[in-house]
Fold these 2 entries.
Entry 1:
Amino acid sequence: MRHVKIENLNVVYTEKGEDVETIKKRFNINPIFPIQKHTNNVCILEEYNNDICDGLITFQKNKAIGVKTADCIPLVLTDFKKVAVIHAGWRGLVSGIVGNALKQFANVKIAFVAPFIKECCYGVQEDFFNHIPEEFKQYRMEDDYKLYFSLEKALIDILKPHVQEIFQTSRCTKCDGNLYSYRNGDKIERMLTVAWLE
Ligand SMILES: [Zn+2]
């Protein structure tokens, strides 16, 4: 488990063999996870009623929210007054979930990106590019006869104009070995990324 603290923001993400109980025990918190379906919906926790959404935002202190991922992007945004957590795979990313979360803030101070699959391991088929909007086609990468899509470059380009500081890890969920990866065969297990403000 990794714990990062930036001012009053806490972010925790789990590694293999750890689950929500590991987080609960260590931090004495009870995180709330949305019902995720690769949508672009971001729900406000204070109005949340088991709706389907892939992002949560809360204005309360010491209220932990989280997302479950295995290769998708776990993203935390904060202005130190409210905090958002987002689950973004390629579907969420190209349908604008990050923009939908950014809209809830006048000024995002910190974006923290927990590990996800990097372009080293995100091979795609040619027809993948028929399913994404034009502006995302620039994140196509090629070497020899293989095609890749860079979730990372797409994400950073979306965040940069709106966020003061972006923190991320270089870990790739598939290469790492100590993180759950759907593409590496972890079909059920999920990495948890949880955030709260003190
Ligand atoms: Zn990799």
Note: The helical segments are 20-27, 90-94, 97-102, 151-159, 173-176.
Entry 2:
Amino acid sequence: MSNPKPPFKAILVDVPMPITTSRLLIRACEPGDGKLLNEALLESNADLRPWMPWARTAPPTVAESEENIRQSCAKFILREDLRMQIIHRESGKYLGGTGLHRFNLEHGIFEIGYWIRSSESGKGYVTETTNALTRFCFGALGARRVTLHINAGNTKSTVIADRLGFKFEGCLRNQDTYSDPTLGATDTNIYARLSLEGLPALDVSW
Ligand SMILES: CC(C)(COP(=O)(O)OP(=O)(O)OC[C@H]1O[C@@H](n2cnc3c(N)ncnc32)[C@H](O)[C@@H]1OP(=O)(O)O)[C@@H](O)C(=O)NCCC(=O)NCCS
């Protein structure tokens, strides 16, 4: 009689870090990141506020940002949420946040999230990050499905999905409770990739 399959344990899944591209270092949060995060958040509040609920609260103190980072470190180890930081390799500048959220590690289903600090927007860093993370999902984590969930009114984010060849699958009408309610934009568009086919070339390693 064959032995029964052992239960799947997310905490035992290897998530190799960091991920590097020619310009970027993408890594898990580390204690001490709070100061860098705080500076970027305060600079970017006007751009983040419409789309990120955590940007609509009172501005965080450095200590609160550090607390938030340390919670994310713990969740990363537990494989509950894989939040990452985007760092410019050459200068070491903190560029923004990304990560894999609402995933199923056993079945290889992932959602990528991202934001960029205002002063570094429009330089292709998020496109590069999302390309790298998509490759990481399929290449390192055995993905069968990688998604982007984007408010239908978020034009800048939609451009990234289109540029990277994510397929529009449909609109979840009135589903978004995440974005600023005063915008009246409550529809979420779902974009997905089931493989790397047609993804723009990118030199990436982990
Ligand atoms: C959505 C968001 C992440 C997009 O950031 P972004 O800076 O526009 O995205 P990119 O870094 O990929 O920049 C794309 C632009 O850089 C340009 N670019 C410059 N150099 C580039 C390069 N080397 N490679 C690719 N694009 C480059 C592109 O042409 C493009 O310009 P365009 O928008 O005029 O066409 C940003 O607006 C943001 O943080 N918003 C708030 C948070 C948010 O909405 N997150 C997403 C929730 S779903």
Note: Residues 47-48, 51-52, 114-116, 121-127, 150, 154, 156-157, 159-160 surround coenzyme A (CB under 6 Å).
